[in-house]
Amino acid sequence: MTTLIEASGLHTYYGASHVLHGIDLRIEAGESIGLLGRNGMGKTTLIRTVMGHLAPAQGKIVIRGRDNTRAQPHQIARQGVAYVPEGRGIFPNLDVRENLLVAARPGYKGRKDWTYQRVLDTFPRLTERLGHGGQQLSGGEQQMLAIGRALMTNPDILILDEATEGLAPLIINEIWRIIEAIRDTGVATLIVDRNYRKVLTHTDRCVVLEKGKVVEQRDSPTLASQTELLTRYLGV
Ligand SMILES: Nc1ncnc2c1ncn2[C@@H]1O[C@H](COP(=O)(O)OP(=O)(O)OP(=O)(O)O)[C@@H](O)[C@H]1O
């Protein structure tokens, strides 16, 4: 396997508040990873550190063998790491088609797997809304558009933070179907979601954070059967 991202010994602060306490995270090409942990344990902070939105005080971030510890978010993105943050980030004044086309670019080493048509085929609901402005879409459609925009950058990994937050059950199922379809194409995924059962179902491996440290790391099917661990770390 080829290692896509290797973060080691990450320490991240917000001012004086020490949030990540020496985190190691390794993601192989094509692998699907879930990041679990109760609220405030550092999941979003870890993602934002890997993406270059927060600078770690200590530690290293290596992408495909190259040091990216001090890289800016756009430099990380150009290496095939696509991030769909909590709260989306689409252009409200552009329609669906424009939102997708404006995001289009080849991936790492010119990879062009995701055409406009292929993205639309993955999101039938967006196809029905092509001429609608971003602000006219429902929350679920906006989320789909945000994921579609990320795919238009031909990523090697898609990072999804709370992609189903606040959505209706039918739409949530549709988002999980899409995540699974993307996983099947060989794009790696890193997923944070409140529904830990869904995360365990749709990933190969899960990493559990507690107070900014990795406290467990197991194959998802194994972890799914460890109710005592899930109770201890997720309070379920
Ligand atoms: N911008 C910020 N400034 C200061 N502290 C922050 C900031 N963002 C997060 N924190 C704190 O950092 C800690 C980790 O937060 P983080 O958002 O990474 O957790 P999380 O595991 O993603 O949980 P959640 O699901 O609640 O977002 C929490 O104690 C939080 O209060």
TrEMBL record:
GO molecular function annotations of the record: ATP binding; ATP hydrolysis activity; branched-chain amino acid transmembrane transporter activity
Pfam families registered for this protein in UniProt: ABC_tran (PF00005)
Domain of life of the organism encoding this protein: Bacteria
UniProt domain ABC transporter: residue ranges: 5-236
Swiss-Prot/TrEMBL keywords: Amino-acid transport, ATP-binding, Cell membrane, Membrane, Nucleotide-binding, Transport
Keyword Thylakoid assigned: no
PROSITE patterns: ABC_TRANSPORTER_1, ABC_TRANSPORTER_2
Alphabetized Gene3D superfamilies for the sequence: P-loop containing nucleotide triphosphate hydrolases
Signal sequence extent: none
Listed GO biological process terms: L-amino acid transport
Alphabetized PANTHER family for the sequence: ABC TRANSPORTER ATP-BINDING PROTEIN (PTHR43820:SF2), HIGH-AFFINITY BRANCHED-CHAIN AMINO ACID TRANSPORT ATP-BINDING PROTEIN LIVF (PTHR43820)
Family the entry assigns: Belongs to the ABC transporter superfamily.
Protein name according to UniProt: Amino acid/amide ABC transporter ATP-binding protein 2 (HAAT family)
